[in-house]
Every structure is written in C-alpha cells, then in structure tokens.
Amino acid sequence: MTPTTMRSKILFTILALGITAALHAQSPAVITVDAAHPGAPIPSIMFGVFFEDINFGADGGLYPELIKNRSFEFDEPLTGWKVVLPYTQTGGIGLSPGEISIHTDAPLNVNNPHYLRATALAPGYGFYNSGFRGIGVKEGAEYRFSAWVRTSGPASIRATISDGATGAIGAGHEIGTGTLTGFNGTWKRYETIIRATATSAHAQFNIFLDQKGSVDLDMVSLFPVDTWKHRPNGLRKDLVQLLADMHPGFMRFPGGCIVEGRVLANRYRWKTTVGDITERKTIINRWNDEFDHRPTPDYFQSFGLGFYEYFQLAEDIGASPLPILNCGMACQFNSSETAKIEEIHEYIQDALDLIEFANGPVDTPWGKIRAQMGHPAPFNLKMIGVGNEQWGPRYIDRYKLFNEAIKSSHPEIKLIVPAGPSPSGQQFDEMWANWRNLHPDIVDEHYYMSPQWFLDNSNRYDNYDRSGPKIFAGEYAAQSTGAAVSPKNRNNWQTALSEAAFMTGLERNADVVAMASYAPLFAHIDAWQWTPDAIWLDNLRSYGTTDYYVQKIFANNIGTRVVPSTPHAEAGLYTVASVDDRTHELIITAVNVSAETRATQIQLTGITPNGSAKVTTLGTSDLTAENSLDHPTDVAPESSTLAVSSTTIQAQLRPNSVTVFRIPVK
Ligand code: AHR
Q: Tell me, what's the pLDDT at 91?
C-alpha cells in the first residue's frame, strides 16, 4: 500500500466511524428501480474515447517512435539533432571533426524533401537525437534502429543509446549499441536490433561514423519492437492497453481543433497520412505555440500514426471509428480562414474518398490502398464528423453541400455536426436553430465547465426533443479551476465525481444521447499544453486519472435498455439503471456526491434478483485525491459482492463515491 493509500484508508476509517454515529439519526436513502417499464435501448457504442494529437499524444505518446524529427522536416530541420560534444572533464573521447548539414538535392521523395548529410573528417565523428524530452528504453527490451542511407563512403554507421541526455560523448554510459552496414550508394533502408542493457527514461541516441566520409540519412528511427500486437510501426502498448480496458464504444479521431488547423494549409488532411511512412508529409502541430503558458516549439506531426493506424486501433479495441473531417474552415479561435464555396468540392471529395478508403471494395482506388496497407476487409465506417467546433452561417452553407453529396451516395453514413464550442450562448443557440430545421443525424456538444456545472446539468437532456437530432457529447471534462485552458486544472476526484453524476444523465437519456467522450485523452507529463486529460504518461510509464476510471466504469457497465430509477439529482444522490439482455443482469449506478456514507435501500419493481450482485466501487472522501505516475491506482475501482435475496436491497454508499451493482435477474 502506498503512503497516500494508507493515509486515505485511515482517513476513510475515521470518517466512517464518525459517520456511523451520525447515521443513526439519518433516514436511509431510497433508490427505486422500475424494471417493469423498461425505457430506451442504450446504444452499445455510447461511451467512447476522443483522441487528439495534443499534449504529445501521438508523436512522443501513443506513436512510440523514439527519434524526434526523424525525417528532418521540422521547420528548423535540425530540431532534435545535435553534434556530440567531447566530455573533456573526465578525459572522455575527444570530439572528432566533421559536420551535419541539411540537403534537398535528390531526396528520398517529394513529400520528404530534406535529409541529413553527416561528414566525418576523422573517424569517430558523432551526433545525437534527444528524443521527445529524452528517450525511454527498458532493460532487456529490443529497439529497431533503422534508417534510409545513401553513401559510397563510410562502410558502417554505429549507433549507441546512452543513459542520461547529456549531449556529451562518454558522459552517460552506453546501454545499447547496433551497427548498419552494406550500403550501395543509393537510397535504401537498413535496420538492426538494439537491446537495451539498462532502463532509462531520458536516454540519448548517438550516431557515429567510424570511417572518414559522408553519409546521407533520412527517416532515422529507433522504434520499440514490443509494440501493441507486435506490429512494426505499431503503437505504445501500455497506452493502448489502458484504452482497451475501457472497452470504448467508439473512437473519435484525430480531434479536436487539430482537424481545423490554425490556417487551412495546416488542416488535417487524411490522405497525406496513409501509405508508406516515408511519404507522409510532416507538418506543424497546431498546439505547437498555441498557448504562451505552455509553448512546445518542437511539436510537429509526423503522421506515423495516420488514418490507417487510427482505423486499425479502433478495430483492435472494439470501438466504432469516428473520423472528424475538415469542412473547409480553419479554427475559428485562430484565423477563421474559410475555403471559398467554389473550392469546397475538394473537401467533400476527401470525405467521399475516406468512405471508400474505409469501406470500399479492394478494387476501388482507395479500397486498394487500404488493402495494400494490410487490411483488405472493410473498417466498417458508419459515421463522420463534418468539422469540429464550427459555428455561424459560413459553416451551415458548407455543411449543406457536404450533406447533399454524402447522403446522395452514402445514405448509410451518419453525419455529425457541431453546436459550436460551448454548451450554451449565442453561437450554440444559433447552431441549434439551424439544426432544428435541417435535421442532421447527430449534433456534437462540448462542455469544458466547472464541477458544479456538471452536477447541476445531469438533467440537461431530460427535456430535449426526442424527435430531433441525436446528441454526441463529443468533448467534455470538468475543469477544477472552473476555467478551460487554465494550466492549473487538475484531474482530481472532485472533477471525476462530478462527471460521473453528469454521466448518469447521459445514460438515462440514451434515447436522445447517442454517444459521449471525455477530452482530451492523453498528456505527456513533460510536454503537455492542455489539462485536465484522461491519461498521463512519461517516456516509460502511464496512468489513468480519476476521470479515466469514471469513464471506464461507465463504459464497462451499460446495459441494453434503460429502466426508470430515482433519485436523479436529489440530496447529492444521482442514479441510472439499465437491464442487460445479454447477461441477464440489472445494472444500477449510484453516485453519492456527499461527504457521508449513505445507508441506502434499493427497491426493485418488476424484476427478481437471482444470486449475489457484483459491486464495483470507485471513490474517496478526499475530493482533492489524484492518481499519479508513482501512485497510479490510488483512486481506482474496487470489487466486492453483495448477497441479494429479495427485491429490497440494503447497501452502504461510501462518501463521494460511484457504486455499480450488477444484479443477476431471473
Ligand atoms: O480538447 C482540447 C480542445 O478543446 C479541442 O481540440 C477542441 O475541440 C476544444 O476546444
């Protein structure tokens, strides 16, 4: 047990003892569940995940390439690369003369126009890459060192991993080495495996030329062999596992504002992210210098994680893919650049081609590319988002064209449209006035609001029009400071608990709320721009926040049909119930937003329990509690059982907790 857990337990015991006395005076809470009148079916995909390349979520995160700027295509093409310095203080090897420089003549391909030329004037010249805030390697693990090389000079290229990103040769100790040889004077890819002999979260990758002469290098890569499903160019295993454990119903990608770009030239274009990785055109990441409080000038998009990999990931974790596409508008918080209406066909064609890429037969142009990449079977795409957080008449004009073109050729594809960036206000009202007339399939609402807002809005959808569009709560997260974009926002138990209370209202309104996803998903502890986030990571470790566990508990415990329950939001108690026709269970989720243990009587109607209930409890009386890299599960679900022999069930709801009862029924 960690010291923090121990402290929480002691605190909990003290509170529990105090509360036991108080309980004698308190009348029990009553939860009623009326299974005789089942309500709306719950979409099986209801609770999903939102992925955006923010906070080093892709390069430096989920996409585990360890070399930053492997293709020398950052705006400053030597970003991440430096010459190895001599470590003279301890009499290390002296610096051999030579230089590294960027060249563009006869490059690897037109999308990858820059490459590095390293020239050794004497044997032993070296340079290094510092990775994404260091390079993370684990003792005993294998890493594939590969590079495209063109040389008629040096016969070999020696690479070492050294512990400690010191920039100096001999300063850190060598914890892995490998050599590339056999060059033939033309561009060709070479690879070797390096086994790390020690663990380091901040290693450095050095390249040495042990013979005089010049070498051209591109796509210099150090990639873990042990990726998710052991795929070359695969994803970081621990992070995918956290996603898989959530059993998300859908996966939204690639954002977020990244879809829009700050200007149209830097919008997300899915076509440049598929095919051979050497041909995927690197561009700046729009979060690069978005916030003065967290500038990350070295943030670019390599697209090693591109649309094929997103579809594949969604399939791996059992999630329905939900790509969001640019609608001809750059971010309206930035330039608001808008493609002329006469130019919009290019954007629409991207959408139509994406449907072909995902679902088309292998003899169609884009279906063929999917098959060549290794997935002849369709990806079963069923929905597309047209734009991200757009608002205003220019969007509506463009949406109408998208809608007409896509629905006429692909009526099976559901279209998701925005309601602007906020959950209320003028832009929101204007968008909804349009949507009431235009009847899109699904409207995407976003809320980055205070914990109190989430508590107060669990009934938000109780009175939404059931004959109107469905709702996608496409981005939401409680902001502990009350303000979005504050770098002081925390992922604590207060934020998570308020989201849980709110989510009872989403699930209860499953007839109008089709889907929901917390945002953003990932953040690198040394390179983030936006907080809070569901999952935090460093170069070796990761953990699910309190908010992650709330997402997980809901996604893992939805039934097939809502059944009426009370209370909704009374005296700090929020409930939702469903039946699961597949497992023959009644599922009750109770969120106790009070500092007291609630002695609770659950009264069932129209259903007969049959055996003991599985109970999952998540919570702590300490609303400021957080998980961390060192204490990843201080706040995590606990399992127990509860004997259930009649339609009246006695239970204790812990202070500030989420409790799920899965009750087998006849
Ligand atoms: O989730 C972070 C950002 O918040 C998203 O990119 C954007 O859609 C929203 O404003």
A: 46
| Residue-level pLDDT at 27 | 57
pLDDT under 50 in the chain at which residues? 1-26, 88-92
Ligand 1 centroid – CA 348 distance (Å)? 23
Place of tokens 């072909």: 356
Kindly report the protein residue whose alpha carbon is nearest to atom 9 of ligand 1: 256
Ligand 1 center to 219 CA (angstroms): 31
Provide the domain limits for residue 640: 28-44+563-664
* pLDDT of res. 104: 98
Which ligand 1 atom is nearest residue 50's CA?
Answer: 1
Nearest ligand 1 atom to alpha carbon 52: 6
Of 514, 537, 559, the one marking the end of a domain is: 559
The beta strand positions in 210-313, using DSSP E, are: 213-224, 250-253, 283-284, 300-301
Residue ending a domain, among 539, 559, 579, is: 559
**475 in contact with ligand 1, CB cutoff 6 A:** yes
* Domain-embedded: residue 68: no
How many domains are contained in the chain? 3
Mutate to test the pocket of ligand 1, among 517, 530, 535 (most ligand atoms within 8 A of CB): 530
d(CA 515, CA 243): 17
Sheet of 648-653: strand order equals 565-566, 29-34, 598-605, 648-653
